[in-house]
Description:
The chain is of the alpha/beta class. It is built from eleven helices and twelve strands. It folds into two domains: about 200 residues, Isopropylmalate Dehydrogenase (3-Layer(aba) Sandwich); about 140 residues, Isopropylmalate Dehydrogenase, CATH 3.40.718.10. Bound molecules: nicotinamide-adenine-dinucleotide.
Amino acid sequence: MPTLNFAVLAGDYIGPEVMDQALRVLDRLARLEGLSLAPVPADVGGAAIDRHGKALPESTLAVCQKADAILFGSVGGPKWEKLPPKEQPERAALLPLRKHFTLFANIRPGILYRELAGASPLKNERIPDGIDIVCIRELTGGLYFGLPKETTSLPDGDLRAVDTMVYRRSEIERILETAIASARSRRRRLCSVDKANVLETSVLWRKTATEYVARKAPDIELSHMYVDNAAMQLVRNPNQFDVIVTENMFGDILSDEMACVCGSLGMLSSASLGAGRNSLGLPFGLFEPAGGTAPDIAGKGIANPCAQILSAALMLRYSFGLEAPASRLEGAVRRAVSAGARTADIAFGGPSVGTAAMADAVIAQL
Ligand code: NAD
Protein backbone atom coordinates (compact mmCIF):
# COMPACT_ATOMS: atom_id res chain seq x y z
CA MET A 1 0.00 0.00 0.00
CA PRO A 2 1.63 3.34 -1.05
CA THR A 3 2.27 5.67 1.90
CA LEU A 4 1.81 9.39 1.37
CA ASN A 5 4.25 11.39 3.51
CA PHE A 6 3.24 15.01 3.65
CA ALA A 7 3.65 17.97 5.99
CA VAL A 8 0.45 19.63 7.21
CA LEU A 9 0.88 23.35 7.84
CA ALA A 10 -2.61 24.57 8.72
CA GLY A 11 -1.72 28.11 9.83
CA ASP A 12 -4.14 30.67 11.23
CA TYR A 13 -7.82 31.63 11.56
CA ILE A 14 -9.81 29.47 9.09
CA GLY A 15 -6.61 27.58 8.12
CA PRO A 16 -7.01 24.85 10.78
CA GLU A 17 -10.81 24.74 10.31
CA VAL A 18 -10.64 23.88 6.62
CA MET A 19 -7.51 21.73 7.02
CA ASP A 20 -9.25 19.44 9.58
CA GLN A 21 -12.03 18.80 7.10
CA ALA A 22 -9.69 18.27 4.15
CA LEU A 23 -7.79 15.66 6.18
CA ARG A 24 -11.06 13.93 7.07
CA VAL A 25 -12.01 13.77 3.38
CA LEU A 26 -8.51 12.57 2.43
CA ASP A 27 -8.70 9.89 5.09
CA ARG A 28 -11.91 8.48 3.57
CA LEU A 29 -10.48 8.69 0.06
CA ALA A 30 -7.35 6.86 1.20
CA ARG A 31 -9.42 4.01 2.62
CA LEU A 32 -11.42 3.74 -0.60
CA GLU A 33 -8.30 3.85 -2.78
CA GLY A 34 -6.07 1.62 -0.65
CA LEU A 35 -3.62 4.41 0.20
CA SER A 36 -1.89 4.96 3.51
CA LEU A 37 -1.62 8.55 4.78
CA ALA A 38 1.25 9.83 6.90
CA PRO A 39 0.49 13.51 7.52
CA VAL A 40 2.89 15.32 9.88
CA PRO A 41 1.49 18.53 11.37
CA ALA A 42 3.72 21.51 12.14
CA ASP A 43 3.21 25.12 13.24
CA VAL A 44 3.44 27.94 10.73
CA GLY A 45 2.51 31.62 10.48
CA GLY A 46 0.99 33.48 13.38
CA ALA A 47 0.47 30.26 15.32
CA ALA A 48 4.21 29.58 15.06
CA ILE A 49 5.07 33.15 16.09
CA ASP A 50 2.98 32.67 19.23
CA ARG A 51 4.53 29.30 20.11
CA HIS A 52 8.09 29.51 18.76
CA GLY A 53 8.75 33.23 18.22
CA LYS A 54 8.96 32.98 14.41
CA ALA A 55 6.66 32.26 11.49
CA LEU A 56 8.75 29.42 10.07
CA PRO A 57 10.58 27.65 12.92
CA GLU A 58 13.47 25.31 12.11
CA SER A 59 11.40 22.40 13.46
CA THR A 60 8.71 23.11 10.84
CA LEU A 61 11.24 23.39 8.04
CA ALA A 62 12.70 20.04 9.16
CA VAL A 63 9.25 18.43 8.92
CA CYS A 64 8.85 19.81 5.40
CA GLN A 65 12.29 18.60 4.34
CA LYS A 66 11.45 15.03 5.37
CA ALA A 67 8.11 15.13 3.53
CA ASP A 68 7.26 14.56 -0.15
CA ALA A 69 4.86 17.54 -0.25
CA ILE A 70 3.37 20.29 1.90
CA LEU A 71 -0.36 20.70 2.36
CA PHE A 72 -0.64 24.32 3.43
CA GLY A 73 -3.61 26.22 4.90
CA SER A 74 -3.13 29.98 5.11
CA VAL A 75 -1.35 32.36 7.42
CA GLY A 76 -1.67 35.86 8.84
CA GLY A 77 -4.38 38.10 10.19
CA PRO A 78 -5.12 41.07 12.45
CA LYS A 79 -3.44 39.53 15.51
CA TRP A 80 0.02 39.89 13.94
CA GLU A 81 -0.50 42.96 11.75
CA LYS A 82 1.51 45.25 14.07
CA LEU A 83 4.71 43.24 13.61
CA PRO A 84 7.42 44.73 11.37
CA PRO A 85 6.84 43.77 7.71
CA LYS A 86 9.74 41.29 7.66
CA GLU A 87 8.24 39.35 10.58
CA GLN A 88 4.68 39.25 9.21
CA PRO A 89 3.41 35.67 8.92
CA GLU A 90 2.95 35.62 5.13
CA ARG A 91 6.29 37.20 4.34
CA ALA A 92 8.24 35.34 7.03
CA ALA A 93 6.73 31.91 6.32
CA LEU A 94 5.66 31.62 2.69
CA LEU A 95 8.53 33.47 1.04
CA PRO A 96 11.25 31.44 2.82
CA LEU A 97 9.39 28.22 1.96
CA ARG A 98 9.22 29.25 -1.70
CA LYS A 99 12.89 30.11 -1.63
CA HIS A 100 14.05 27.05 0.29
CA PHE A 101 12.26 24.60 -2.01
CA THR A 102 12.70 26.74 -5.18
CA LEU A 103 8.95 26.68 -5.76
CA PHE A 104 9.13 28.24 -9.22
CA ALA A 105 5.84 27.15 -10.79
CA ASN A 106 2.56 28.39 -9.41
CA ILE A 107 -0.40 26.58 -10.96
CA ARG A 108 -3.82 28.05 -10.35
CA PRO A 109 -6.85 26.34 -11.86
CA GLY A 110 -9.57 28.91 -12.59
CA ILE A 111 -12.63 26.74 -12.30
CA LEU A 112 -16.18 27.90 -11.84
CA TYR A 113 -18.90 25.23 -11.98
CA ARG A 114 -21.89 26.09 -14.13
CA GLU A 115 -24.15 25.89 -11.03
CA LEU A 116 -22.09 28.60 -9.33
CA ALA A 117 -22.00 31.01 -12.27
CA GLY A 118 -23.90 33.47 -10.06
CA ALA A 119 -20.78 33.80 -7.86
CA SER A 120 -18.91 35.46 -10.73
CA PRO A 121 -19.13 39.22 -11.26
CA LEU A 122 -19.39 38.41 -15.00
CA LYS A 123 -22.81 38.25 -16.63
CA ASN A 124 -24.08 34.69 -16.92
CA GLU A 125 -24.36 34.86 -20.72
CA ARG A 126 -20.58 35.32 -20.93
CA ILE A 127 -19.96 32.08 -19.05
CA PRO A 128 -22.97 29.82 -19.75
CA ASP A 129 -20.92 26.72 -18.93
CA GLY A 130 -18.91 28.20 -16.10
CA ILE A 131 -15.13 28.70 -16.41
CA ASP A 132 -12.31 26.20 -16.85
CA ILE A 133 -8.86 27.69 -17.40
CA VAL A 134 -5.41 27.51 -15.76
CA CYS A 135 -2.95 30.27 -14.96
CA ILE A 136 0.70 29.30 -14.57
CA ARG A 137 2.89 31.93 -12.96
CA GLU A 138 6.67 31.96 -12.70
CA LEU A 139 7.22 32.40 -8.98
CA THR A 140 10.90 32.83 -8.19
CA GLY A 141 12.21 35.34 -10.75
CA GLY A 142 11.37 38.64 -12.38
CA LEU A 143 10.70 41.96 -10.74
CA TYR A 144 10.08 40.63 -7.24
CA PHE A 145 13.56 39.14 -6.84
CA GLY A 146 15.82 40.98 -9.31
CA LEU A 147 18.74 43.03 -7.96
CA PRO A 148 19.42 45.89 -7.43
CA LYS A 149 16.33 46.52 -5.36
CA GLU A 150 16.88 49.65 -3.31
CA THR A 151 15.90 53.18 -2.39
CA THR A 152 18.65 55.81 -2.38
CA SER A 153 18.81 59.48 -1.41
CA LEU A 154 20.08 61.65 -4.24
CA PRO A 155 22.41 64.65 -3.80
CA ASP A 156 19.54 67.01 -4.70
CA GLY A 157 17.52 65.63 -1.77
CA ASP A 158 15.19 63.59 -3.96
CA LEU A 159 14.57 59.86 -3.35
CA ARG A 160 15.07 57.22 -6.03
CA ALA A 161 13.78 53.63 -5.86
CA VAL A 162 14.79 50.78 -8.17
CA ASP A 163 13.39 47.31 -8.81
CA THR A 164 14.98 45.08 -11.39
CA MET A 165 13.13 42.81 -13.78
CA VAL A 166 15.42 40.02 -14.84
CA TYR A 167 14.98 36.58 -16.45
CA ARG A 168 17.37 33.98 -17.79
CA ARG A 169 16.33 31.85 -20.74
CA SER A 170 16.66 28.70 -18.63
CA GLU A 171 14.15 30.07 -16.09
CA ILE A 172 11.67 30.76 -18.90
CA GLU A 173 12.16 27.29 -20.39
CA ARG A 174 11.62 25.70 -16.97
CA ILE A 175 8.21 27.32 -16.48
CA LEU A 176 7.29 26.59 -20.12
CA GLU A 177 7.92 22.91 -19.42
CA THR A 178 5.31 23.01 -16.61
CA ALA A 179 2.88 24.92 -18.84
CA ILE A 180 3.28 22.48 -21.73
CA ALA A 181 2.58 19.53 -19.42
CA SER A 182 -0.54 21.27 -18.17
CA ALA A 183 -1.73 22.11 -21.70
CA ARG A 184 -1.15 18.49 -22.76
CA SER A 185 -3.48 17.29 -20.01
CA ARG A 186 -6.15 19.72 -21.26
CA ARG A 187 -7.05 21.31 -24.62
CA ARG A 188 -3.42 21.73 -25.78
CA ARG A 189 -3.66 25.50 -26.10
CA LEU A 190 -1.07 27.71 -24.45
CA CYS A 191 -1.18 31.50 -24.28
CA SER A 192 2.08 33.16 -23.25
CA VAL A 193 1.47 36.59 -21.73
CA ASP A 194 4.14 39.30 -21.82
CA LYS A 195 4.76 42.96 -22.58
CA ALA A 196 7.18 42.44 -25.46
CA ASN A 197 6.34 45.82 -27.01
CA VAL A 198 8.06 47.56 -24.05
CA LEU A 199 10.12 45.22 -21.90
CA GLU A 200 13.43 43.59 -22.76
CA THR A 201 12.68 40.60 -20.49
CA SER A 202 9.42 40.11 -22.38
CA VAL A 203 11.23 40.09 -25.74
CA LEU A 204 13.37 37.22 -24.45
CA TRP A 205 10.28 35.59 -22.93
CA ARG A 206 8.39 35.65 -26.24
CA LYS A 207 11.36 34.48 -28.33
CA THR A 208 12.05 31.65 -25.87
CA ALA A 209 8.40 30.57 -25.79
CA THR A 210 8.19 30.53 -29.59
CA GLU A 211 11.40 28.55 -30.06
CA TYR A 212 10.91 26.17 -27.14
CA VAL A 213 7.34 25.18 -28.02
CA ALA A 214 8.26 24.74 -31.70
CA ARG A 215 11.17 22.48 -30.69
CA LYS A 216 9.72 20.55 -27.74
CA ALA A 217 5.97 20.67 -28.15
CA PRO A 218 4.82 21.06 -31.76
CA ASP A 219 1.52 19.45 -30.68
CA ILE A 220 0.74 22.56 -28.59
CA GLU A 221 -0.99 25.57 -30.14
CA LEU A 222 0.96 28.57 -28.83
CA SER A 223 -0.31 32.14 -28.88
CA HIS A 224 1.07 35.37 -27.39
CA MET A 225 -0.80 38.21 -25.75
CA TYR A 226 0.24 41.50 -24.16
CA VAL A 227 -0.56 41.61 -20.47
CA ASP A 228 -2.85 44.63 -20.70
CA ASN A 229 -4.93 42.87 -23.34
CA ALA A 230 -4.92 39.63 -21.29
CA ALA A 231 -6.37 41.55 -18.34
CA MET A 232 -9.23 42.71 -20.58
CA GLN A 233 -9.78 39.36 -22.27
CA LEU A 234 -10.07 37.58 -18.92
CA VAL A 235 -13.12 39.70 -18.20
CA ARG A 236 -14.57 39.68 -21.73
CA ASN A 237 -14.32 35.96 -22.39
CA PRO A 238 -12.23 33.93 -19.92
CA ASN A 239 -12.90 30.63 -21.70
CA GLN A 240 -10.99 31.76 -24.80
CA PHE A 241 -7.97 30.67 -22.74
CA ASP A 242 -6.93 27.14 -21.94
CA VAL A 243 -3.56 27.53 -20.20
CA ILE A 244 -1.95 30.92 -19.56
CA VAL A 245 1.77 31.10 -18.77
CA THR A 246 3.39 34.30 -17.60
CA GLU A 247 6.13 35.90 -15.53
CA ASN A 248 5.95 36.60 -11.80
CA MET A 249 4.33 40.03 -11.47
CA PHE A 250 1.97 39.65 -14.44
CA GLY A 251 0.94 36.28 -13.02
CA ASP A 252 0.40 37.74 -9.56
CA ILE A 253 -2.07 40.23 -10.96
CA LEU A 254 -3.74 38.04 -13.61
CA SER A 255 -4.21 35.07 -11.28
CA ASP A 256 -6.00 37.28 -8.75
CA GLU A 257 -8.17 38.72 -11.51
CA MET A 258 -8.93 35.17 -12.60
CA ALA A 259 -9.85 34.25 -9.00
CA CYS A 260 -12.23 37.20 -8.95
CA VAL A 261 -14.01 36.23 -12.19
CA CYS A 262 -14.27 32.66 -10.85
CA GLY A 263 -16.30 33.78 -7.82
CA SER A 264 -15.61 32.61 -4.30
CA LEU A 265 -12.08 32.16 -3.01
CA GLY A 266 -13.52 29.26 -1.05
CA MET A 267 -13.48 27.11 -4.22
CA LEU A 268 -10.02 27.89 -5.62
CA SER A 269 -6.93 25.79 -5.10
CA SER A 270 -3.30 26.26 -6.09
CA ALA A 271 -0.08 24.32 -6.44
CA SER A 272 3.48 25.64 -6.25
CA LEU A 273 5.90 23.12 -7.68
CA GLY A 274 9.57 23.03 -6.84
CA ALA A 275 12.66 22.47 -8.92
CA GLY A 276 13.59 19.48 -6.75
CA ARG A 277 12.21 15.96 -6.80
CA ASN A 278 10.71 14.19 -3.79
CA SER A 279 11.51 10.63 -2.66
CA LEU A 280 9.14 9.34 -5.37
CA GLY A 281 11.03 11.18 -8.12
CA LEU A 282 8.10 13.58 -8.59
CA PRO A 283 8.03 17.38 -8.10
CA PHE A 284 8.08 18.49 -4.48
CA GLY A 285 5.22 20.95 -4.05
CA LEU A 286 3.28 23.20 -1.73
CA PHE A 287 -0.48 23.02 -2.13
CA GLU A 288 -2.78 25.68 -0.71
CA PRO A 289 -6.10 27.48 -1.18
CA ALA A 290 -5.98 30.63 -3.27
CA GLY A 291 -7.58 32.66 -0.46
CA GLY A 292 -6.25 33.82 2.87
CA THR A 293 -7.19 33.23 6.49
CA ALA A 294 -10.61 34.94 6.25
CA PRO A 295 -10.55 36.40 9.79
CA ASP A 296 -14.05 37.82 9.18
CA ILE A 297 -15.61 34.34 9.28
CA ALA A 298 -13.05 32.42 11.38
CA GLY A 299 -14.32 30.51 14.41
CA LYS A 300 -17.87 30.35 13.11
CA GLY A 301 -17.60 26.98 11.40
CA ILE A 302 -18.87 28.39 8.10
CA ALA A 303 -15.70 28.58 5.96
CA ASN A 304 -15.80 26.68 2.69
CA PRO A 305 -13.41 23.69 2.90
CA CYS A 306 -13.53 22.98 -0.87
CA ALA A 307 -10.44 25.05 -1.78
CA GLN A 308 -8.42 23.09 0.78
CA ILE A 309 -9.87 19.77 -0.38
CA LEU A 310 -9.12 20.64 -4.02
CA SER A 311 -5.57 21.63 -3.01
CA ALA A 312 -5.19 18.14 -1.57
CA ALA A 313 -6.32 16.76 -4.94
CA LEU A 314 -3.56 18.77 -6.66
CA MET A 315 -1.07 17.31 -4.17
CA LEU A 316 -2.17 13.77 -5.08
CA ARG A 317 -1.80 14.57 -8.78
CA TYR A 318 1.51 16.45 -8.86
CA SER A 319 3.58 15.24 -5.91
CA PHE A 320 2.27 11.67 -5.64
CA GLY A 321 1.40 10.94 -9.27
CA LEU A 322 -2.06 9.69 -8.25
CA GLU A 323 -4.21 10.97 -11.09
CA ALA A 324 -7.21 8.67 -10.54
CA PRO A 325 -7.68 9.47 -6.81
CA ALA A 326 -7.11 13.19 -7.57
CA SER A 327 -9.84 13.15 -10.23
CA ARG A 328 -12.11 11.16 -7.92
CA LEU A 329 -11.74 13.83 -5.24
CA GLU A 330 -12.35 16.68 -7.70
CA GLY A 331 -15.39 14.85 -9.07
CA ALA A 332 -16.78 14.40 -5.55
CA VAL A 333 -16.51 18.14 -4.83
CA ARG A 334 -18.21 18.94 -8.12
CA ARG A 335 -21.04 16.46 -7.47
CA ALA A 336 -21.52 17.68 -3.88
CA VAL A 337 -22.03 21.21 -5.19
CA SER A 338 -24.29 19.96 -8.04
CA ALA A 339 -26.38 18.08 -5.49
CA GLY A 340 -26.97 21.37 -3.66
CA ALA A 341 -24.43 21.44 -0.81
CA ARG A 342 -23.42 25.06 -0.31
CA THR A 343 -21.44 26.96 2.26
CA ALA A 344 -22.56 30.57 2.75
CA ASP A 345 -20.00 32.03 0.29
CA ILE A 346 -21.56 30.10 -2.60
CA ALA A 347 -25.19 30.00 -1.41
CA PHE A 348 -26.19 33.46 -2.75
CA GLY A 349 -28.42 34.03 0.28
CA GLY A 350 -30.07 30.59 -0.01
CA PRO A 351 -29.79 27.76 2.52
CA SER A 352 -26.22 26.93 3.51
CA VAL A 353 -24.29 24.35 5.51
CA GLY A 354 -21.21 24.68 7.72
CA THR A 355 -17.62 23.60 7.09
CA ALA A 356 -17.99 20.05 8.46
CA ALA A 357 -21.30 19.40 6.69
CA MET A 358 -19.79 20.54 3.39
CA ALA A 359 -16.98 18.03 3.88
CA ASP A 360 -19.58 15.36 4.74
CA ALA A 361 -21.31 16.12 1.43
CA VAL A 362 -18.01 15.60 -0.42
CA ILE A 363 -17.35 12.35 1.47
CA ALA A 364 -20.82 11.13 0.53
CA GLN A 365 -19.96 11.67 -3.15
CA LEU A 366 -16.63 9.83 -3.03
P1 NAD B 1 -9.00 36.42 2.42
O1 NAD B 1 -8.77 35.61 1.20
O2 NAD B 1 -8.65 35.81 3.71
O3 NAD B 1 -10.54 36.85 2.46
C1 NAD B 1 -11.19 37.59 1.42
C2 NAD B 1 -12.70 37.29 1.45
O4 NAD B 1 -12.90 35.95 0.97
C3 NAD B 1 -13.27 37.34 2.86
O5 NAD B 1 -14.56 37.90 2.81
C4 NAD B 1 -13.33 35.90 3.26
O6 NAD B 1 -14.34 35.62 4.21
C5 NAD B 1 -13.58 35.19 1.94
N1 NAD B 1 -13.03 33.82 1.97
C6 NAD B 1 -11.72 33.46 1.80
N2 NAD B 1 -11.60 32.14 1.93
C7 NAD B 1 -12.83 31.66 2.17
C8 NAD B 1 -13.34 30.36 2.41
N3 NAD B 1 -12.56 29.26 2.43
N4 NAD B 1 -14.68 30.21 2.64
C9 NAD B 1 -15.48 31.28 2.61
N5 NAD B 1 -15.07 32.54 2.40
C10 NAD B 1 -13.74 32.71 2.19
O7 NAD B 1 -8.23 37.80 2.18
P2 NAD B 1 -7.91 38.99 3.20
O8 NAD B 1 -9.08 39.25 4.07
O9 NAD B 1 -7.36 40.05 2.36
O10 NAD B 1 -6.70 38.44 4.09
C11 NAD B 1 -6.86 37.93 5.41
C12 NAD B 1 -5.51 37.49 5.93
O11 NAD B 1 -5.05 36.38 5.13
C13 NAD B 1 -4.43 38.57 5.82
O12 NAD B 1 -3.65 38.53 6.99
C14 NAD B 1 -3.62 38.16 4.63
O13 NAD B 1 -2.30 38.59 4.75
C15 NAD B 1 -3.71 36.65 4.72
N6 NAD B 1 -3.48 35.96 3.45
C16 NAD B 1 -2.75 34.82 3.50
C17 NAD B 1 -2.53 34.11 2.33
C18 NAD B 1 -1.73 32.85 2.42
O14 NAD B 1 -1.51 32.34 3.49
N7 NAD B 1 -1.28 32.30 1.30
C19 NAD B 1 -3.08 34.54 1.12
C20 NAD B 1 -3.86 35.69 1.11
C21 NAD B 1 -4.06 36.40 2.28
